[in-house]
Amino acid sequence: MVDLEKLKTAARETVSRDDVKYLIGWRQGTYGFRVSPHFVKEPEEAEKLIFSPLCTNNLATYLVLTERLPLPRGEQPDSRKVALMVKGCDSRAVVQQLIEQGIKRESVLIIGCPCEGVIDLKKVEEKFPHLPGPAQARWSNGNIVFHLPDGDKEVPKGEVLAAKCLSCRYPNPVMTDLMLWEEVQTRGNDEYDDITELEAKSPQERWLFWEDKFSSCIRCYSCRNVCPMCYCEDCVLDRLNPAWVFRSNNISENTAFHLARAFHLAGRCIECGECERVCPVGIPLMKLNRKLAKEVKEKYEYIPGLDPESKPLQSSYRPDDKEDFIL
Amino acid sequence: MNNKPKIGVYVCHCGINIAKTVDVNTVTEFASHLPNVKVARNYSYMCSDPGQLLIREDIKNEGLNRVVVASCSPRMHELTFRKTLAEAGLNPYYLEMANIREQCSWVHEEGERATGKAKKLVAAAVSKVRLLEPLQEKEVDVEPATLIIGGGIAGIQAALDIANAGFKVYLVEKTPSVGGRMSQLDKTFPTLDCSACILTPKMVDVASHPNIELFTYSQVEEVSGFVGNFQVKVRKKARYVDVDKCTGCGACAQECRLSGRIPSEFDVGMGKRAAIYLPFPQAVPAKYTIDSQRCLFLTRGKCGKSPKCVDACAAGAINFEQKDEIAEFKVGAIIVATGFDVFDASRKPEYGYNDYVNVITSLELERLVSASGPTGGSVMIGTGEDASVPREIAFIKCVGSRDKSVGNEYCSRVCCMYTAKLAHLVEEKIPGANVRVYYMDVRAFGKGFEEFYDRVRREGIRYIRGNPSEIFKRGDKLVIKVENTLTSTPMEDEVDLVVLGVGLEPRKDAREIIDLLRLSQSADRFFLEAHPKLAPVDTATDGVFLAGCAQGPKDIPDTVAQAKGAASSALVLLSSGRVKVQAQISFVNEATCRGCGFCVEICPYGAIELVTVNRMGHQVSVARVNEALCKGCGACAAGCLSGSVQQKSFMDRQILPQIAVLGGMR
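YS: structure for the whole thing
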């Protein structure tokens, strides 16, 4: 069970430590069911921390987005730890970052929040439109209770949970330094049912499907920027010489962008669904990511983001790898 | 120097190989209008002397500084044309090949569209060649030594040839003695020489040759490095016998409590040995080995009051404290001569190999007819008082060869002749025996083979065309159910002994060698040669050569021939003493590298490492390529997410314009 007091105490203790730079958690947003990331530097700031079904954001992104500004000669970089609150899915992002040496184990403190599933904001806003101010929610016996101005509303989980949570295999953080409360039961056995419909289509139909979706892309790059696995300092998709993707917004360049993005995540995507969540035009990016994740799992028996000691997919060659898909 | 590209395009007819499908004149005309193209010509054979002369003359007279040759695969002639450029004083890496043969004329029929594709390929090559940069080839010294894996006749022959040429050889054999499969054979076809008599002198030579270091009962554990400079680690397994003291007298084996109770590997289970053993009388080295899996003292820690072998050994050679040793050395070349396994006859249950004592394999019969075999050369069924001499004997050929049902489509090449030889020997050893051979085809293709097959038939051995469907027991006899396919008559044949002519298979432990040396397998699972015709002893890994049945089934003369070929290939390397290292290697842009280490993990040559550098006051790790180790395979460049690893001559900015042309964007 979520214990907010325990969370705040742990946060206060953590940021009081000399070797901790700050803690990243969630806090109430400015309107509706929105939640903001909260950077806690001083113990008293811990008071604002929350953990609720609204805490969808994967904060692991902030671990690798830290800018490394040039240092004056003789000055040492701040090597203190960053404390991070993680749900199950978020923790896999941290593990994958460790596998890829994006972060160092000693520079991060992982605070685990076993999670009963977070909401899909679109579903919730459809149910409760036009809220005057910020609103909260909590888990309650398999349901989610929304605190609205006109009283509490209890809604069955199935109606409002994000798709990724309905079939979640890893509700509990897979690696932590501190687990805040007891682990919750695993909900689903993910069979990748959500992509079977797309898989059954002919190549032409699939092409039409994606052409339709990609043509609406405005190339805001939100999907890339929010992704905890996309953190190259110099992204190939931004480069002008050579330009793999031109900046013009048309179906050809949009497709090139999305294919490159998806392929760069093959064997690395931990399926937190952030890209799809932030997409302003509703491109079902997770269908693409999960198709690759499924292939990677079935063909190479590889699941990213579980064991920090494991090797990246590209080098996990085994002599008995299936070869039936090679022409 | 004026670096403005002046490109020469040379379109090859390749006789009619290209010209028949692709209109080379149209392609040449098209190429002459491409940007920066100064000259475009076509010629019947660009790779011929006059063809190359055309290029050299144009470089001199027209001042060309880039060359595109539109002909065959670069695997075929890239080196040829690089030399042409170098001879004309141009950097050899200013060359780009457009493959309009393998990837165009050979795979297409229709002329106009094939010509269109050839145009695109040429245009793509032109767009890339403009962006190529000159590269320098470096050379490194070759370690004047060779590692040979496998001490059968192939390994022995290769070792002797190289050692006689004056170079060091490390010969590594897994079992306690060299000799391999050939030492198990009795006579050899078609001349009927005694196998041991011709092999043993070579085995002795190998052991005594000053240039050969012999590791028996040893295994190669690790190979790193590259052609000319391989680092090798060999595990010398503990024999528990001090080889310097052991005289090979055999008193220990006689006294061993398990004497005559362990199936002998050498006699394929037909004979028995002790826990301390010499695999066979002529074994080299003639030193005993303790089977650590069987020895009572080593498995249970106790062998009576004291181990009998220790008491029996006058030389005091037995040492139960012995440990595995690791030997490390450097070699310039490696020869893989790991041989074969015979087909496991129990995989054809219809032949009852597991059920009946009088169904045996050809290798088992080979031990029975051998004078040094468990029966002293007499062909007997069963053991002890039940032993009897068979009168009616049938051979079945192609057991586990040419048989899709067991996954072996290939012909094992030796079974026809060894069956004829064994039939002859059995007929000779058992007067009045009736011998017949059930066959699908008789393939007597070698020197003296057909004559031998004729001779055997004249001696009264019957050849019956038919592939038996079943063998079962009736009374004392075995019944072979078969259809004579020449007369289309189903028949049953009652015999005393069935000999299964088992085929040759890749060794079960072949995977170890594949992983060690990054070899490939062909469809039959034997090791794959670099080219089936023109490079039959080379492999895709430079400096690694194949000899003998590891590459595919062969008889002894072919094995020896290939071993000599492999030896001479290795000697070419060793005696030249220098090897060129790849110039088209990869390099890292350390400014954009994020140090994820994917390339380090991907690199099959261990050529990349992560190093810590100072980036504006921050210590960050980035990848760095060891130029001597990089083989230019490009795996790192393909795996790099940020595009920070690039391969020379295949940089993103060089191949993207090429792709754009192919895609019709420019």
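YS: worth flagging: Residues 1-66+80-189 of chain A form one domain.
IM: good catch. Also Residues 81 and 153 of chain A are 40 Å apart (CA to CA).
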